[in-house]
Amino acid sequence: MMRKIDCAILVLALAFAWLGASAQQKADVAKPKKISPDLFGIFFEDLSYAADGGLYAELVQNRSFEYSPADNRDWNSMTAWRYETDGFGYGTISVETAAPVHPNNPHYILLDIQDEGQKGVGLENSGFDGIPVKAGKNYNFSVFLNALSGRSLPVKVALIDRKGKELCSSSFTTANKGWKKYAEQIHVNFDNDSAKLVLLIKAKGKVGIDMVSLFPEETFKNHKNGLRADLAQVIADIKPKFMRFPGGCLTHGDGIANIYRWKNTIGPVEQRVEQRNIWNYHQSVGLGYFEYFQFCEDIGAKPVPVLAAGVSCQNSGGTWKIGGTGQKGIPMEEMSAYVQDVLDLIEYANGPATSTWGAKRAAAGHPAPFNLEYLGIGNEDKITGVFEERFRMIYDAVHKAHPEIKIIGTVGPSPNGEDFEKGWKLADQLSVGIVDEHYYEKPQWFLKNTARYDSYNRLRSKVYIGEYASWGNTLFNALAEAVYMTNLERNGDVVRMASYAPLIARIGHTSWNPNLIYFNGTKVFPTVNYYVQQQFAANSGNEYLPGMIKLKGEKTAIDTTAGTSVVRDAATGDIILKIANAGNTELSGEADLSKISQLPKSATLTVITGNPEVKNSADNPQAILPQSSVIKLQKKWAFTVPAYSLTVVRISSANAKKSK
Ligand code: AHR
Q1: Helix or strand or coil: residue 638?
Q2: Domain limits at 638?
Q3: CATH label of the domain that carries residue 101
Q4: Contact criterion met (CB below 8 Å) for 24 and 597
Q5: What is the Å distance from ligand 1's center to 282 Cα?
Q6: Which of 216, 238, 254 is at the close of a domain?
Q7: Is 450 inside a domain boundary?
Q8: pLDDT tens digits along 541-581
Q9: Does the predicted model carry a pTM greater than 0.85?
Q10: CA 260 / ligand 1 centre spacing (Å)
Q11: Residue 379 in contact with ligand 1 by CB distance below 6 A
């Protein structure tokens, strides 16, 4: 997504000569400071159709007939489905729960076909705003059927267009009786953004139908039960150091029964326990803990699962509207089982394949551990006695059994206030390693608070900014975040991690705005904020090099509209300079590169700039893109960066070797 430009926007000028250099790319500039190697990551929440209808590649909506009015007032088992009798067939259709495929997945459709008519009788699914298919691609269809009449039945599966025209089909016959999974591969030789899937039984008889599924053969890294390749790739391109999942509010849930239970989300998909999504839709949990861990591994991000601290969301039942608290604690007599679930998660991720939970990971196809290092307990909970009691139980048990795990506590939903203070107090008492701060604020807030972490006591808990964003997707918003992020790098000794939120949202189904990435059924639209996040994550380091960039005039490294930072990445030896300018005038300054020994002759320069009020949208997705070019390097150089811009210069150690 990078465009090449000439680098006229950055004027580099030779200043004065360097006095001497030593070891290659050693950052022996003024007192380098060790900073977190995991600073910039992502936070995935199943919000705004981020999982089902989003990253999870399943194309059939409500495949297991488990939708219900509890998910959404207007929903039931037949949502996204249509009873298909267009060929003059008839019979009865009912939603049944007796003798299902698996007790965890109770609902299925029973067809009693009295006359199959000209075409058969069956079901039609409209997918998530239609089923997008592409010419030349294969699609994997599967279904669980139970031929209850005791004889084999002919079945046809087809894709049709919006007008009902058949586009392609495949046929098979069922066994005589009993639930059985049937799978067919469908080759498609046409493009259609809004096809429908039809399943027709072409004979008289009774048949149970469940788990009707259609996946593109090509998923991200081609895993079975995998993820949507284009969307996953855009996320991977951020190069996040970690991924927090499966949510914020989703994790602690709408009431105790809705708390996200990781054990419900692993194993064969037809045996997982589906549930209502707190954001008023449904979780098939087809994208469950195994898939989350696998995705983290695939994109090189450390997994950061967050589990409820034994309490539900304080806004459960919409109680925030009446000013009360809906926070409920898991009954104390059930807490030891809950604590055990938390410990079991660590075994699932890290235990040997011979351990009870490690064996389940191995059975899913991953005998090697997932190397869990971080674990979040709680999500911006109200810090009450009920919370504290349960948090302590979980914290103590994990800390005792797994001192190697870095526990992340929670300090409320705001950058200050009662829960923030109480959360920090509790963290002090327990010496919690890291606490999770959240803030959604105006861009001006980010610009005014660039010095926030300068005064943080380095002996207290470290900070994970688990959720933050300025309210908007314009370039100005993104630059306010960029300025702030240069200051996070400067404070990378106390700020261990940071993740913009929320990550992805399906257009037409957003429960929260702004988001980092928007998408529909066929396209992905990264925002300008996305490109800023990408620049920081892909160009992060583990050493902060102070004093290398001097801005002209009044501007300083912690100016409210400008931010600069220089980091060195030990893994590559590269040095990265960032100059963020959220101001309305050009910014000039000088960078002293003289102490970089074996300075290469050139570096990569990337600039994000444009009209501060512009955003990328579905209509104009490329309004603002990073623009890259190669620049010549000098030991000391003067620069001028445009108003409203982020400039990143990556000085590659590999280039230094080549320039030798
Ligand atoms: O990111 C959206 C929501 O914001 C999260 O679910 C919650 O933790 C926060 O309030």
Answers
A1: strand
A2: 546-651
A3: 2.60.120.260
A4: yes
A5: 17
A6: 216
A7: no
A8: 999 999 999 999 866 656 789 999 999 999 999 999 999 99
A9: yes
A10: 15
A11: yes
